[in-house]
Amino acid sequence: MKPCLKFLALSIPFFFAYSITKAQNTELEKTTGYVNFSLGETTLPHEKTQSLSLFGCNTNITIDSKLWNGPKGFSWNKANQVLSGIPVGHQIDPKTNKPYYVAKYYIASPPVFKAGSQNDPNTLYDIGIVTPDNFVFDGKKPVQMVYLDYNVLKPMFIKYIEVTFDSSFDGLGVDFVPFMVECDDFPWREANGIIGAQGASGIGSLTKDSTNVARLFLPYYYPYDTEGSAPTNSMEKYLDCEVTLLNDILFHYEVFFIVNGEKRTSINLKTLQNEKISFHAEYREELSAGCVESKQ
Question: For the chain, how many helices (H) and strands (E)?
């Protein structure tokens, strides 16, 4: 009986050591995924290629980042343009050594300009639709298909609205603010049997720089103008656009709009276009929904 007890006593520490090692390895299991982009046409003249950005938990993938593994710009009217090596699964933040999980991503694709500049009020913008504009990777080596169409919405003029970053960002050492814009009255072009359609949404982001000033934009048009013409004396029609902060992918912090001393996670740009707007950041101990593994 004693030899058996001795063997059991030796086995228990080994079992726990093995279990801990296995658990640690499981926690660090991760892989990478792909996004397969297909681009259609644009309404306005365009650059040869289009830039894109992906935002996940504690993960920003832009064309000038180390995580970018794809073409240096995506070609119009071309299918199956692949971005690879996208982080998926359990990660460790190198600055804090804290764990997080990444699987949900948002996709931002900027407007296309007609001849002119961003500061020229006569510049027309072609705002496209990204389908889907957010997704969750699923599978051992997942692939997400995405389609960009810049030929379905009416071109817009844009009013820029300044937003300031307060000192809380410096205190936390963060600088990134992702958001979703939803305009329920964004007019579609009338084509292919679509008449009177309205509504569109998209993803954007702002990053704090040394000026502490950034700009949101509010689309508008002139109802009685021919599509694509220069503005006349008719009254501008501003779109009814709601901007919602995407706190679900921010790593241990959350961001708020401050308007008239009130904290908000979403604002209506049409209503507040003439108000003073600022960003405020706060530390968040609990990981947000987009930074943990789904239990489904």
Answer: 3, 23
C-alpha–C-alpha distance, residues 127 and 117, integer Å: 15
Whether residue 152 contacts residue 264, with contact meaning beta carbons closer than 8 Å, is answered with no
Nearest to 127 by CA among 42, 61, 45: 42
Write out 123-184 in H/E/C secondary structure. Answer: CCEECCEEECCEEECCCCCCEEEEEEEECCECCEEEEEEEEEECCHHHHHCCCEEEEEEEEE
H-helix or E-strand spanning residue 78: strand 78-92
Q: How far apart are CA 78 and CA 282, in angstroms?
A: 42
Phi/psi at 72 (nearest 5 deg)? Answer: -85, 60
- How far CA 290 is from CA of 104, 159, 170, 256, 282, in Å, comes to 6, 32, 24, 17, 17
Q: Where does the pLDDT of residue 226 fall: very low under 50, low under 70, confident under 90, or very high at 90 and above?
A: low
Work out the pLDDT band at 29, boundaries 50, 70, 90.
Answer: low
Residue type at 11 in one-letter notation: S
Q: Which of 20-29, 74-83, 109-118, 263-272 has the lowest mean pLDDT?
A: 20-29
**Who contacts 147 (Cβ-Cβ below 8 Å, separation ≥6)?**
37, 38, 39, 40, 130, 131
Do 199 and 183 meet the contact criterion of CB atoms below 8 Å apart?
Answer: yes
The residue written with tokens 């003029």 in the block is 157
pTM of the model: 0.87
DSSP annotation of 288: P
